[in-house]
Amino acid sequence: MKVFNAARLKSGSREEMRKHLFLVLNSALLWWWVSIPIPGACSQNQTDRLALASFKNEINKDPFGVLSSWNDSTHHCEWQGVLCSKRHPGRVTSLFLRSQGLGGFLSPHIGNLSFLRVMVLQNNSFYGEIPQQIGNLFRLRHLILSNNSFGGPIPSNLSRCSNLETLNLIDNQLVEGIHSDLGSLPRLKALGLTENNLLGSIPPSIGNLSLLEQLSLSQNGLHGEIPKELSRLNRLLLLQLSFNNLTGEIPVGIFNISSIIFFQVGWNQLQGSFPPNIGTTLPSLYSIVANHNSFTGTIPSSLANATDLWELVLESNSFHGPIPKNWGRLKGLRVLALGHNQLQDDLSFISSLANCSNLEILNVDSNLIHGSLPTSIFNLTSIKKISMEANSIQGTIPSALGNLFNLSALNLAHNSLTGPIPDSIGALYNLHPLALAGNKFAGEIPFAIGNMTLLNELYLQSSNFQGYIPQSLSNCTQLLELDLSNNNLIGSVLTPKF
Ligand SMILES: *[C@@H]1O[C@H](CO)[C@@H](O)[C@H](O)[C@H]1NC(C)=O
Ligand SMILES: *[C@@H]1O[C@H](CO)[C@@H](O)[C@H](O)[C@H]1NC(C)=O
Ligand SMILES: *[C@@H]1O[C@H](CO)[C@@H](O)[C@H](O)[C@H]1NC(C)=O
Ligand SMILES: *[C@@H]1O[C@H](CO)[C@@H](O)[C@H](O)[C@H]1NC(C)=O
Ligand SMILES: *[C@@H]1O[C@H](CO)[C@@H](O)[C@H](O)[C@H]1NC(C)=O
Ligand SMILES: *[C@@H]1O[C@H](CO)[C@@H](O)[C@H](O)[C@H]1NC(C)=O
Ligand SMILES: *[C@@H]1O[C@H](CO)[C@@H](O)[C@H](O)[C@H]1NC(C)=O
Ligand SMILES: *[C@@H]1O[C@H](CO)[C@@H](O)[C@H](O)[C@H]1NC(C)=O
Ligand SMILES: *[C@@H]1O[C@H](CO)[C@@H](O)[C@H](O)[C@H]1NC(C)=O
Ligand SMILES: *[C@@H]1O[C@H](CO)[C@@H](O)[C@H](O)[C@H]1NC(C)=O
Ligand SMILES: *[C@@H]1O[C@H](CO)[C@@H](O)[C@H](O)[C@H]1NC(C)=O
Ligand SMILES: *[C@@H]1O[C@H](CO)[C@@H](O)[C@H](O)[C@H]1NC(C)=O
């Protein structure tokens, strides 16, 4: 599910434009919609026409000629991307110019479009500062300037747009901080500032945005603690704070916001542990991304109550203890990524994944996992990637491995696996890469390995293999990396590549 993303505008009839505007604001921006301005009877209004002319004047790149319709022979309400009010003839209510390749400054005269309610300039090449005059647009509800190259600070006068419901400035080059006045936009439902160069801390006043549903601040240089005031955002659906330099613990009150669906705080320096009842206080969780932090404690088994869970990404923290063994109700679970922690487990959690028929990624690399591969793992036929590198897994690989026909990556390197590699591995036609290095296998590399024609990386070094290198390897024409060193192998690889 993509948030703050939208369908593409095709040029064409105004009807199509209205339809697309609706799609963009309704479906792609996910949770809210806006009433669509009614087709307008148009009479002249010089203020708006002049402001639009100034807007056009600052544009120096218009590869698709979208602004060629903005000419003297047509009324400005007929210009492409412009919608006018019915009640106030000639007054512009929407400016919708998404993905048009437009480049240039955003004219300060835009601030004269005082009836403007919607401005969508997403995915163009606007640069320069967002003009302070935007603060004069007190009717503005949806401002979507994402995917441009706007620089400079977030204009402080934006806080005067008191009807703003959507402020989406994602993927620009905005600098300086998030000023606390943004917390005084009483109708704001979505604040998107991800992928900028914002510094400073998250202002506690954001917690005053009582209607806020989406808060997206990832990929900036924000530091300091997550303000406890955010706990008051009791309508929050989406919290994205990943890729910043946030420190401290997550305020406990945030774990009480039962509406949260997306909880993404990865790649920070956050500490503390997850409350044991997280799965009951946040029952709607769909995505938990908390990787690359310093979280401690155990993985709460109450997550089994968050039955919509789709991804659980907790890699590279200091979680310890066993992996919960009650995943059975999470039928939609797709990603279980727990690598690089201190989890102690004997792989018995795997059997409880049997009902997770959508599971695609299982990663428990670099933990304290022992025991042998349970046969139940070979029933997970939806699985695409299994990674269990650098643990203490023992025993053999059963021939049931061949059941995992969707497998595209298998990494069991640096464990204590023994016995031969089963011939059934040849059934894994999609496999690329395969890493089994650093084990204690016996016997030959199976001939069937030549069946894996997509194989691009093959790591079998230091694993005690014997006998001839199978000639079938020459069928693996996609191989870019091959390491067979430190075994007892005879022969050579018959392909011009090596
Ligand atoms: C916009 O309004 C300002 C006054 O607020 C005026 O000076 C300016 O000329 C106007 N621009 C256009 C293009 O009408
Ligand atoms: C002016 O715009 C109309 C469409 O609104 C278009 O048909 C016409 O070709 C344009 N004129 C020029 C000179 O670009
Ligand atoms: C962005 O706009 C360009 C046109 O300039 C278009 O080709 C591209 O598909 C758009 N990207 C998205 C994700 O809509
Ligand atoms: C906007 O940029 C983001 C990240 O750079 C990208 O994922 C997304 O597809 C882009 N969207 C549009 C509409 O261009
Ligand atoms: C910004 O807002 C202040 C009032 O807060 C106002 O005096 C000033 O004219 C505005 N600036 C612009 C460029 O609109
Ligand atoms: C939040 O709003 C209250 C009034 O509702 C105000 O007193 C307080 O200063 C605001 N908090 C912040 C941090 O701006
Ligand atoms: C976070 O801080 C480290 C130094 O402590 C710095 O190297 C890194 O660039 C910072 N990251 C961001 C996203 O600002
Ligand atoms: C969370 O909610 C529970 C029950 O509604 C309440 O007892 C508790 O104090 C809340 N915790 C925080 C930190 O808000
Ligand atoms: C799930 O929630 C119920 C209450 O709704 C609770 O009794 C049960 O212990 C929870 N399960 C787990 C694993 O926490
Ligand atoms: C694997 O699935 C089959 C049928 O789908 C079932 O009979 C068998 O018990 C399962 N094996 C394990 C180990 O879960
Ligand atoms: C390897 O592929 C051949 C067909 O190319 C097939 O007959 C054979 O069963 C496959 N081997 C394995 C182990 O799946
Ligand atoms: C290579 O593949 C072809 C057909 O895909 C098969 O007939 C042949 O036996 C394979 N050769 C080796 C050495 O595996």
Automatic annotation (TrEMBL):
The keyword Ribosomal protein does not apply. InterPro entries: DNA_repair-toleration, Leu-rich_rpt, Leu-rich_rpt_typical-subtyp, LRR_dom_sf, LRR_N_plant-typ. GO terms for cellular component: membrane. It is found in: Membrane. It is a single-pass type I membrane protein. SMART domains: LRR_TYP (SM00369). Belongs to the RLP family. Residues 46-85 form the Leucine-rich repeat-containing N-terminal plant-type domain. Keywords: Glycoprotein, Leucine-rich repeat, Membrane, Repeat, Signal, Transmembrane, Transmembrane helix. This is Receptor-like protein kinase At3g47110. It comes from Rhodamnia argentea. The chain crosses the membrane at residues 21-40. It comes from the Eukaryota.
